[in-house]
Amino acid sequence: MKKTAVILLAAVVFVAAALSGCAKDSGNSESKTSADSKKIKIVTTIFPEYDWVTQILGSKADQAEVTMLLDNGVDLHSYQPTTEDIAKVKSCDLFIYVGGESDEWVSKALKNSTNRKMKVINLLDVLGDSVKEEESKKGMMPEKEEEEGDSDEPEYDEHVWLSLKNAKVLTKAIAKEIEALDPENANAYGKNEAEYLRQLSALDEKYKKAVRRSAGKTLVVGDRFPFRYMVDDYGLDYYAAFAGCSAETEASFRTISFLAKKVDKLKLKNIATIEGSDRKIARTIIKNTGKKNQHIVTLDSMQSTTSEEVEKGKTYLGVMTANLGVLKKALQREE
Known about the structure:
Blueprint: H1 2-38, E1 40-44, H2 47-57, E2 64-68, H3 83-91, E3 94-97, H4 106-111, E4 119-122, H5 123-127, H6 144-148, H7 164-181, H8 186-213, E5 218-225, H9 228-233, E6 237-243, H10 253-266, E7 270-274, H11 280-287, E8 295-299, H12 307-311, H13 316-331
Parallel strand pairs: 1-2, 1-3, 3-4, 5-6, 7-8
Helix pairs in contact: 2-7, 7-8, 8-13, 10-11
């Protein structure tokens, strides 16, 4: 009888302990859920937007849940949102997107938003009149729609983030919305914004200095050219196989020949491409130059940055600093 009582008592103690543990776990879970629900939900489309947000958040990163939709290597012009992506956009507190032709899917997603207090930043809208129309330079392969005469509407160059001047304007706009969403930490965000703007301005000055010192003021690109905002900022000229938003991949012999002659005339040491290029066009241009000894350098447009690269420490400032080194080489001329 005593043995039975001891067994029953032990069982009661075990069950009570288990229930206590469950209650504790449940409490922790509820606490975690409550903390997560208080976080600002920010959704960005491309890497530069994502990085600007994280720079503004700084040490207060735990106050927000930040998502970068284009995180698997697909570029802006090819991206198609998944059902999960749309759901994140519809329920977030702040949504940041570029706003060009590549983002035509956004209007429908926002129309069906479940968060009526959502704040939205359209980069092209923020920049207003400083946004440039897509440019077709001499020697470029024409778009198919241009050949067919189907395009009456102006097509805007979406690659606004490749201007440090634009980056400063956009960072200010993003910081303003984050501060409004989390006024308790607005002072910290403001300090982070000020420091980041200082770093952007310092790099902008380095670009100006490098261009002033460069004998060459023109680069040749055997690829698409999404860097118009960058070259316009510093008074540079360029020739390229395709426009920045072009979907074309094959250049005609006429385009190849034109660019090869420009390389010869400008006495360029290097031909530029963009990240992810197979370099085929650049190599063909080199084969058609007089000396056939040019090198190929690569500019990073940040259109297809992956989450893995972000985890490894890739930043907007880091890329733009590296691009400055590449730009110097792309402008180099034989003496």
